[in-house]
Design brief:
The chain contains five helices and no strands. The protein has 184 residues and is mainly alpha-helical.
Length: 184
C-alpha cells in the first residue's frame, strides 16, 4: 500500500499535471479508475471468473443434456407415431376386408333368399292347387250324394206308390240278407 501511495505522490507531481492527467483523490475520474481496478483485483483474488465459467459450463452441460433428452424423446415419439400409423393402416385394411366379406356374404344371402322365396312360392302354389283339387272332389262328392239322395227319395216314392206290402216285405228281407252277407 505504501508503494501505491509513493507511486501516487510521484505521479501527482507538477510534471504529470502538465500532461492533463491529474492523479489526485479529488479527481473523480481517478477515484473511479482506482475503484474499478480494485474491484477487478478483488474479483480475480476471489476467483470469480473461474466460478462464473464453472457456472456457465454447468449451464451449458445442462442445456446439452436437455437437448440430448429432447432429441431422444423426439426419436421415441417418431417411432411411436410410425407404429401408430402402421397400426392405423392395418386397421384400415382390415376394415376394408370386413366390408368386402360382408358384401360378399350379403350377396350370397340375397341369392339364397331368392331361392328360398321361389321354393316357398312353389310350395304355396302346390298347397293351393291341392286345396282346389280337394275342394273340387268335395263338391263332386256332395253333388253325387245329393243326387243319390234325390234318386233314393224318388225311387222310394215310386216304390211305395207302385208296390204292395208283400213285395215291400220281400225287398226288406233281401236287403237284410245282403247286409248280413257283406258284414260277415
Amino acid at each position: 500500500m505504501k508503494k501505491l501511495l509513493a507511486l501516487l505522490t510521484v505521479t501527482a507531481s507538477p510534471a504529470y499535471a502538465s500532461s492533463g492527467l491529474e492523479f489526485s483523490l479529488n479527481n473523480t475520474n481517478f477515484v473511479v479508475l482506482l475503484a474499478f481496478l480494485l474491484f477487478v483485483a478483488v474479483l480475480i483474488y476471489l476467483k470469480v471468473p473461474g466460478l462464473v465459467t464453472g457456472q456457465l459450463d454447468k449451464r451449458a452441460d445442462g442445456i446439452r443434456d436437455e437437448l440430448n433428452e429432447a432429441r431422444a424423446l423426439r426419436e421415441e415419439a417418431q417411432t411411436i407415431l410410425a407404429s401408430y400409423e402402421r397400426k392405423q393402416k392395418e386397421v384400415g385394411e382390415q376394415a376394408e376386408r370386413i366390408v368386402s366379406t360382408a358384401k360378399d356374404e350379403a350377396a350370397i344371402a340375397a341369392e339364397q333368399a331368392k331361392v328360398d322365396l321361389k321354393a316357398s312360392i312353389a310350395r304355396r302354389l302346390a298347397a293351393a292347387e291341392d286345396q282346389i283339387a280337394s275342394a273340387q272332389a268335395a263338391a263332386v262328392k256332395e253333388v253325387r250324394d245329393t243326387a243319390i239322395q234325390v234318386a233314393i227319395g224318388a225311387a222310394g216314392d215310386l216304390i211305395t206308390k207302385g208296390m204292395s206290402a208283400a213285395e215291400g216285405n220281400k225287398l226288406i228281407d233281401a236287403a237284410i240278407k245282403d247286409a248280413e252277407a257283406k258284414l260277415h
